[in-house]
Amino acid sequence: MFFIKYMLFFLLLCRFVASQQEDAAFTYNGFRRVSMSLDGLAQITENGLLMLVNTSLAQVGHAFYPQPIRFMNSSSGNVFSFSTTFVFALFSEFATLGGPGIMLVIAPSRSFPGALSSGYMGLFNTTNVGNSSNHVVGVELDTFQNIQFNDIDDNHVGIDINHLRSVQAAPASYFSDEENRRVSLNLYSGHPLQLWVEYDGTKKQLNVTLAPINVPKPTIPLLSLNIDLSQTMVDHPMFVGFTSCASAVKAPQYVLGWSFKMNGQAKELSLSQLPKLPRMGPKTRPRIFSIGFPVIGASLVFMSIFIIQFIVARKKKFAEVLEDWELEYGPHRFKYKDLYIATEGFHDKEHLGAGGFGKVYKGVLPTSKEVAVKRVSHDSRQGVREFIAEIISIGKLQHRNIVTLLGYCRRKGELLLVYDFMPNGSLDKFLFHHKSTATEIKLSWNQRFQIIKNVASALLYLHEEWDQVVVHRDIKSSNIMLDGELNGRLGDFGLAKLYDHGGDPKTTHVVGTFGYVAPEFARTGKVNPSVDVFAFGVLLLEVACGRRPIEAQASEECIELVEWVISSWNRGAILETVDPKLEMNYEVEEMEKVLKLGLLCSQSDSTARPCMRQVVRYLEGEIPLPELPSLTSESIGDVSFWCPYLGSGRRPPSSDADSLFSGGR
Asked: Do 570 and 602 belong to one domain?
């Protein structure tokens, strides 16, 4: 009997606790003597302000209501209705540039291991951003445009689900019922603003409303999203609170008051009881500066003018293009002055080579690090902002067979890309022995085969193993760099395109080099990994045969490399195409594998080409190479279409610089 009474008491207690969670409510008119769960930079000031961050250090601040709240009805599987409102103030030391802002967040936990600051708001990192397993719902007040996550501008409100790419967003503003129009707001003005977030569990509608504190709650919300939060939230208690992070700009962030109610309307805040904000304007200058000095000698004036003229002339010499949005890329941006000095003023003796998009120079940075600097002409009409964002994303690639892109610099109509320096130059110089090579070095077959596997590994990483799909679009021997040990490393990502895994890549301008461009890409401009597979197939034949894809000096039937190898394969004499410089010093089985794989990858039917994961397995001998299909010269596509020099009586171009399709990115 005692046991039964005990169990009944326990069940009633659990039900009481659950009902308490389901009807959770709190109202804080200031945070003095409030027990908040604080982490990182977050703290409560002496007068009761909740300060999330107040520094330019790359750190985060978390502040959560300490008790978990059950948001989901276990019996129905639906999320309860809830309502919350808070007053906040954001400030920036720059009049036109804010920091990362703050976010109201509902999450399964108050800790976020491995979370990054800056563009990730102390919630996510590069590996988990966007994962459905995050179970995170947030409303962001963002004052810093994040190109990586497609922010609409640098002063907006957004609804985020498991990601920092908002499912719905709008510029900060409110609907004035008196004026019957929408009025813009500046989130980082330092003036208190109030935000309301309301979810109707029956209608499955999430509304977000913003207004100054001296304006009643507008009747029309800023954001209204039809969404079933039961698809995101979990069936166990979750935590609600705020998160933020510091950036290079000092931007203090405060929450003055906060009210929350589950299954009902949050209680209105008592605005008169909210704590006062600290003075957040410019400091008063000392009196001596306002009075000035009574007498300034004429000689000092002339000297000052001379110094100013000298400084202006020097600054003009090293003037750069720097816009506000580039501040986000600080660690990846090089000063033009440093690159100018590193390359000895881009002197001819530091010139390494030239391609279709610019010259490359060797340089030594002040840290004694050797770099290669590529000078590229750019037109702002071709979307420099998006191009820079992709360049910075590519700079995050980490693979032993990829030349590291260290950063960039912009000056007038010129873009400078900075790469790790590769002491042995490019593969094409070894294959074709340019006259400029002081000592003729022959690559053995073992070295060539290893370089092929190096490039295949790099492409597999780009296509499948990185955060996004990266299509290089310019695979060729002159873009395969050799390090000090003659390992192959894929370089020059100036034409690369990025898109999300599972996403639909956009149609682009056709760019690339004659002989390497997949026929379907030339026809449609649709970019995908099979475009790189085609070019890699041509590269395989180039390395094995020691011939360029289009040989201008060859006989008419041998101009096009792929067609020539197909013809030899059909005659049963594919080994006759092997580079004579190898002098029979190669493994026949490996050579046949490379030649046949080159033909397999360079088929005109993109669906018949293997993916790079299969290519790597073929090269490593993990799976046997399939039988080649019946190949004819038509199997490689309409050559006269994607290489108009063939079949027209004209000779192909003699250099990469002349052989690039036009069109930009």
From this structure: yes
Spell out the long-range contacts of 127-132 with Cβ–Cβ below 8 A and sequence spacing 24 or more.
127/467, 129/163, 129/164, 130/162, 130/163, 130/165, 131/162, 132/162, 132/232
Distances (CA, A) of 376 to 113, 318, 341, 354, 356: 40, 17, 18, 10, 9
Q: Is the domain of 486 the same as that of 538? A: yes
Tell which residue, 594, 599, 535, 536, has the closest CA to residue 564: 599
Residue 499 lies in a domain: yes
SS3 assignment, position 521 = helix
Round to whole Å and give the CA distance between 286 and 289.
6
Which residue is listed with tokens 């208690």?
237
Does residue 651 belong to any structural domain of this protein?
Answer: yes
Identify the CA nearest to 280 among candidates 89, 100, 102, 99. Answer: 89
Average pLDDT of the chain is 81
Mean pLDDT in residue range 156-170: 93
Contact 188, 99 (CB under 8 A): yes
Cβ(571)–Cβ(582) below 8 Å: no
For residues 220-232, average pLDDT: 95
Residue 283's pLDDT band, with cuts at 50, 70 and 90, is very low
- Catalytic residue positions? 474
Rounded alpha-carbon distances, angstroms, from residue 386 to 326, 332, 380, 407: 11, 15, 10, 15
pLDDT tens digits, one per residue of 178-203: 888 999 999 988 899 999 999 999 99
The end-to-end CA distance of the chain, in Å, is: 80
Per DSSP, the three-state class of 102 is strand
The predicted-structure confidence for 6-38, as pLDDT tens digits, reads as follows 454 444 444 444 444 557 899 999 999 999 999
Angle between the 588-601 and 445-460 helix axes, to the nearest 10 degrees? 40
Give, as one character, the DSSP assignment of residue 639.
H
Q: Identify the CATH number of the domain in which residue 350 sits.
A: 3.30.200.20
* DSSP notation for 474-507: --SGGGEEE-TT--EEE---TT-EEEETT--PPB
Choosing from 421, 439, 463, the residue where a domain stops is 421
* Residue 319 structure tokens: 């003037």
418-456 confidence digits (pLDDT tens): 889 999 999 998 998 655 444 456 899 999 999 999 999
pLDDT computed for residue 131 by the predictor: 92
Q: CB of 579 within 8 A of CB of 449? A: no
Helix pair angle (612-619, 445-460), 10° resolution: 150
In 401-476, at which residue ranges do the beta strands (DSSP E only) sit?
405-411, 414-420, 468-471
Phi and psi at residue 419, to the nearest 5°: -120, 160
> 3-class SS at 565?
helix
pTM (predicted TM-score) = 0.50
234 plus 99 within the same structural domain:
yes
Confidence of residue 359 (pLDDT cuts 50, 70, 90): confident
CA–CA–CA angle 175, 178, 179 (5° rounding): 70
Q: Can you say whether the dihedral through the CA atoms of 142, 146, 39, 260 is positive or negative?
A: positive
Q: Does residue 495 lie within any of the structural domains?
A: yes
Q: Are residues 152 and 70 in the same domain?
A: yes
Nearest Cα neighbor of 430 from 354, 516, 538, 543 is: 543
Q: Are residues 512 and 575 in the same domain?
A: yes
Whether 157 and 188 map to the same domain: the answer is: yes
181 and 37 together in one domain:
yes
**187 and 176 inside one domain:** yes
- Residue 326 has what pLDDT? 62
Report the distance separating Cα 573 and Cα 653, nearest Å: 29
Segments forming the whole domain that contains residue 512:
423-665
Q: Is residue 226 part of a domain?
A: yes
Would you state the pLDDT for residue 513? 82
Query: Which helix (H) or strand (E) covers residue 288, if one does?
Result: helix 287-291
